[in-house]
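Worked example

This section walks through a single chain of length 398. The input is the sequence exactly as stored; nothing has been trimmed or padded.
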Amino acid sequence: MKEVEKQLQIIKRNTVEVIEEQELKEKLKHSIDTNTPLRIKYGIDPTAPEIHLGHTIPINKLRDFQVLGHKILFLIGDFTARIGDPTGRNETRPILSEDQIQNNLLRYKEQTGKILDISKTEFVYNSHWLSKLTLEEIVKLLSVFTIAQILEREDFSRRYKANKPIFFHEFLYPLLQGYDSCALKSDVELGATEQKFNLLAGRTLQESFKQKKQVVITVPILRGTDGTLKMSKSYNNHIPIETTPNDMFGKVMSIPDDLMEEYFQLLTSLDTPYFKNIVKENPRQAKGLLAKKIVERFFDERTAEGAEEEFDKIFKEKQIPEDIPEFLINKGHEITILDILFNSGLLPSKAEARRMIAQRAVKIDNQTMDDPYAKIEMKDGQVLKVGKRKFLRIKFKE
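Given that input, the structure is written out below as tokens.
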């Protein structure tokens, strides 16, 4: 039982719920006694091409299981992505095309390889079994749940009360995710707290299929750089793991101070008393350490040190970064500040460019620009700055 308790302590770190803990202990004991690894399932729909720090919370837990010698089943929901997970949504998700799904799949393995040992990770695709279900088998799945049970979900309930449409294909999503657990005979399934209904559906369906019920483990949802909403590309508060070290460092440094302990706890391996003391004694130093540790994890120590030096150069010493993008303009061609901001890709739209200029957040050679339609001066090497971290060098060509 000593080994069981040791594994349990590692597994429970940074989790919210274990349903049921006694079942997990029994599974771990059987695994140790028979030298048979547990089958650990985690699913993700390829609805976007990039993984951000919020996604890494459950993947970090997969790594804990992997280090303990258990089998990781990383499920790519290439079939369920065609439905769209309604969890946490106030409206129907758009159904992705096959091309979109395949495009997003290409980058998943490379990104998860930054955390997991890919050689010991089995990637499985639910289209392999869901696409083969007959109508009779689907009806059998539907018979396990009542409409009342489905409507207990907070997101469905909210939409129902607000008279917003809920389509039948959305009702199918948690059932299909649950069926994935049956197809994989999973012992444990991981997911964020908002996925609890879907995860429990796996237990219900496994029981109806006379399988041993999987243990459900929920992990916290990471808040984004705004400090309020969950990290999401949709909310523009995310930190992708496939970005530049300087960008990652800068975005971590931009989080509110009251988010630091949460990030330290969920994204680093530092001892809790240690980082809590630093946060209390010196918040600025603590945030720098946090940013450095996160960059170091996805790159290396030397790169993290370089990102810290670059950040200090810009924000402490008010210097211009060494490596900034250039925007070429034909000599004699008149162009407005608005067009440069948009055409260079520095800002995603002209509306955003106007907004930043109105906020007096756009400068050229440290001179604040307040007219979006002002023409750029024909002077080579000017530096355009937007906000605190976006820079562009303007060059003229014959």
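What to look for: The chain has 17 helices and eleven strands.
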